[in-house]
User: Fold this.
Amino acid sequence: MLPVIDSRFNILVYLVTFVLSWLLFALLWWAMQNWNGHSCVEGVDGFTTALLFSIETQHTIGYGSRAVTDRCLGAVTLLMLQSVCGAVTQCIITGIIFAKVSCGIIVYKLFTYLPYLATFQSCCCWPDCLELFARRHAESGGF
Assistant:
């Protein structure tokens, strides 16, 4: 079962997760540019532009004046790695938010059916709520 965590703490964790991933990849882009003599990414000439390029890459919002060149295989590999990591991070965060919101909706619906409330008193997370709700609904033939 998932622990019940305050929503403000959840938002903080989500923000920190994204900011840290942007900063980590910005550091990698910046290091790659300095190590390879500014030939891997056009338009990245410092840490600030590397951070902007990292955000643009992770959220696929378009580059404008910054672009990966074909002169550096490491840049292409890093681009693919950041794209995959960004998509996985987005999926995980979206799943967590969806589970948290869904549990609230299910618990609200459960409280509207007071005769069945005793069945769900131990339910505190989305998978448990959904399983118990489906089992009770099937046993009773519907509400």
Q: What stands out?
A: The longest strand covers residues 41-42. The two ends are 26 Å apart (CA to CA). The mean pLDDT is 78. DSSP finds four helices and two strands in the chain.
